[in-house]
Amino acid sequence: NRFSPIVEGMIDVSTQIGEVVGRVQAVQFRQMVNAGMDERQARSATNELSQYSLAIGGPLSNLARIMMNAIKVDQVVEAAIAEMDQGRKPLITFHSTNAALLNEMSRDEDGNRLTEEELAELPEMTIRDQIRRIHNGLYKMKIDGDTLDPRANNSDAMRAFRKFSKAARHRNANGRGVIAASLRLQDAIANIDDGTERDRMAARAEELDAKIVPHTPLREVVETYTRLSNTNYYEEAVSQRAIEDYEDALKSITDELEEDHLAELESIIVTFRATIDPGERRQLVADIGEAFRRIELPRVMNDEIKADLTALEAEVDTLGGDREHYDAINAAFARIDELINEIPDLPVSPVDALIERLEANNIRTGEISGRTLCYRENRIQKRGGRNRKEIVDNFNGGHLDALLYNSAGATGGSYLAGVTFDDQRPRSLIEFEAPIDIIKYVQAQGRGNRYDQVASPK
């Protein structure tokens, strides 16, 4: 009753984030098609640029299993004690190891494994930490190739500004990239509803842009080319006007170009004028860009400009843009986080909690699984006793009272009250958690019920 609303909330907020990305994809797709790209290619490129591909079903399914296991620990311990009191040996099957969380928590931000001393200093964890891990993983989306937090302001203007700022601040930045980002920012600002704010912000952006890449004839060429590359090639008049603007700007720097370079550009322009195919026009513009890469457009960066960029970012952020969307996502995050706080202090690793409580009741317990880490004594540590043959021999020989195993131990082992084994106490199968695969489920059940047994299992 406390966990289900959390799952519902996660599904709902993931749907909201998917809708945000979907709206961006729709705009990008139309822009690419207008620029002469084939619809199939545009769809593929759009999906690559912007995506929210989290398959929420899998993580939530695993989380639900771990939650149920955490709730059942005491019940399974009681069942195991009851079987031991009747002179029977518990075989306990499980599926979820929680290995992903333990592996993640045992590494630093750079992915390096923490030392034993560093692991010991980690705070104690409960099932809430596992739920939060899944919850926090929802808030990542890819827009225009950048990984963003959907709880932040990701309006068109804000995204355009971030790209502009990144292009301007880059240590090896070229003025061409700054101009392209600046024009995208101006286009985004032009869509701001408030006319006063729109005009003020446009003026501020233009002023800052001019400081970074001063106005020169070469800048004019780069700017007209950038606009040409963003033209709707299906519109004849618009395309011809864009190529004409570029040609006029190019004339102002003819003295700076080598003769063969200028001839190459002029040939492409003539071909562009002669064709009406949008796809061919798009390729010709790409050819212009490739030919133009030989020319460097310098940019300026200093402490004053950096301060201006920081100030402008704060102003763009106040505009909000799609505020209703990310405000709703933030509200959902806060609501889910509050629900997580209400979850009781259940064990973060139910399998380890089960083993600890069995051993606290003097039930010697072995485990067969593929996991390398465990959560014992309230900390992450390496799991010892992983020799499968030794564990099976100890169980059948009477040195272990109970055996836990998942799919790693569901095949190739005999855990029965065998005629050749020293410990012939009857076995009792306790399903802590059934595997998802029905074949493994049947195999797991068969480990304690085989030929040559002296007592039937329960």
Given the C-alpha coordinates, what overall shape results?
A: elongated
- What about the largest sheet? 4 strands, parallel
> What is the share of helical residues?
55-70%
Number of helices: 18
Instruction: Give the amount of beta strand, in percent.
Output: 5-15%
* Ends apart, CA distance between termini: 33 Å
Class based on secondary structure composition and strand pairing: alpha/beta
Strand tally is 8
- Which series of helices and strands comes N to C? HHHEHHHEEHHHHHHHHHHEEEHEEH
C-alpha-based Rg, rounded: 32 Å
> Uncertain runs with pLDDT below 50, 5 residues or more?
none
Assembly form of the protein: single chain
Mean pLDDT: 88
Output the strand order for the largest sheet. Answer: 4-7-1-8
Structure write-up:
The protein has 458 residues and is of the alpha/beta class. The chain is 59% helix and 7% strand. The chain contains 18 helices and eight strands. It has a four-stranded parallel β-sheet, with helices on both faces. Strands 2-3 form a two-stranded antiparallel ribbon. Helix 6 (127-137) packs antiparallel against helix 15 (323-341), helix 7 runs antiparallel to helix 8 and helix 9 (195-212) runs antiparallel to helix 14. The radius of gyration is 32 Å and the shape is elongated. The chain starts with a helix and ends in a 12-residue tail after the last helix. The model has no long low-confidence stretch (mean pLDDT 88).
